[in-house]
Amino acid sequence: MIQIFGIPSQALFGQLLLGLINGSFYALLSLGLAVIFGMLNIINFTHGAQYMMGAFCAFLLLKYLGINYWAALVIVPIVIGILGILIERLFLRHVRKLDHLYGLILTFGLALIIEGLFRNYYGSSGQPYSPPPELTGGHNLGFMFLPNYRAWVIGFSLAVCLATWFAIERTRLGSYLRAATENPALVRAFGINVPRMVTLTYGFGVGLAALAGVMAAPIYNVSPQMGSDLIIVVFAVVVIGGMGSIMGAIVTGFMLGIVEGLTKVFFPEASNTVIFAIMIVVLLARPAGLFGRAA
Known about the structure:
By secondary structure, the protein is mainly alpha-helical.
């Protein structure tokens, strides 16, 4: 068996694959958080619950309506995104101009309510969700076995992240969004409905979380705790990348997933804390984050 740095290659590349998968979800979720914070200036603690709702929505659509994974990839982000729009309309718009702490407390409370409702009905045990038949199996690359579904998750999440970055940074709509965060009064002068743009942006960010939930359902058990287990790490990813930075969320998400995976090989005891250690170092050296701008 081939060894790299004294470690079997299959174990090393297996953990690297796991890191890329985790990084895919870190990138998608932190991207949604970055979009919402950049537009609304709200730290959306409900993001983990919305990720969990996306997974449950896919599970329930398959169980009761027979809607498969491919259709769920389209339907679920729209459904959960609409629920996010209702949350923004009913709650978040009233605290958007206040201190960040108010939005954080409000969204944290909403997350606890949503998670409690699902846990009360479905319990704490996870629900299985099978991957689509087209993506079962895998390929033996010689140095490791690559499951087809996991390769799909990495590739598709990267494509979604890059498409989102392009839409925000390189299109006219994206320029309107960025201008509305800097000078909403000026954007209104051009006849653009800024409140509607804010609402739709929040719905889009929530839709990204729901999409990540659908993609995560066949890999992890669908459970009420799946969002709360991940959201703290995702917030650390956003802080390291830079609050509101789109490219920072993407690059940092994948990078830290790989770092976490490799840490499990070389120093397993630190795998659960390495991201937070990196966050402390980055904040000490560059408080705005790797890709963030100073206030």
